[in-house]
Amino acid sequence: MGSLLLIFLLIVPLIEIVLFINIANIIGVTYTIILAIFTSYIGLSIIKRQNIKKILIIRQQIISYKHFQFRMIQNVYLLVIGLLLLLPGFFTDLFGLFLIIPQVQKFVISKIMMHLLKWVNINYCSYTIDGEFEKKNEKNIDC
């Protein structure tokens, strides 16, 4: 897991640098910087809008316990999308825009829910010890 994270932290910035250079060569440095600032603004607005709106919804759902787990995962998912768009770079922006597609969003959230439910069942299940017993009266107990 640690080596996978290290590879991710090394490869993503390299991809971002290559994309910045290539896009700057195509559309110009000024437009590239404006595009990066624009996508960061979109990411910030998504984070801001989701946090304000969803906090009220979460509060109502905690009270009624209606679709609480799904909504919590969806809110974290949208926060991750907003953070991806907020980070400067075109690779993370494209990945964030891909994740915001409703069909992709439903698929990813359902997979996360499935893994979380499996993890909860594995880590927090109760174990049953199977056995037989025989009830004895106090008079019949041999010591």
Query: Shape, please?
Result: elongated
Q: Whole-number radius of gyration? A: 25 Å
Main sheet characteristics: none
Number of strand segments? 0
Structural class: mainly alpha
Helix content: over 70%
Residue runs with pLDDT of under 50 for 5 or more positions: none
Number of helices: 5
User: How far do the termini sit from each other?
Assistant: 57 Å
Strand fraction equals: under 5%
Q: How do the helices and strands follow one another from N- to C-terminus?
A: HHHHH
The pLDDT mean sits at 77
Verbal overview:
This protein is mainly α and 143 residues long. The chain has helices at residues 2-27, 29-64, 68-86, 90-99, 102-124. The chain starts with a helix and ends in a 19-residue tail after the last helix.
Helix and strand arrangement:
Blueprint: H1 2-27, H2 29-64, H3 68-86, H4 90-99, H5 102-124
Q: Which properties best describe this structure?
A:
143 residues; mainly alpha; elongated
Brief rundown of the structure:
The chain is mainly alpha-helical.
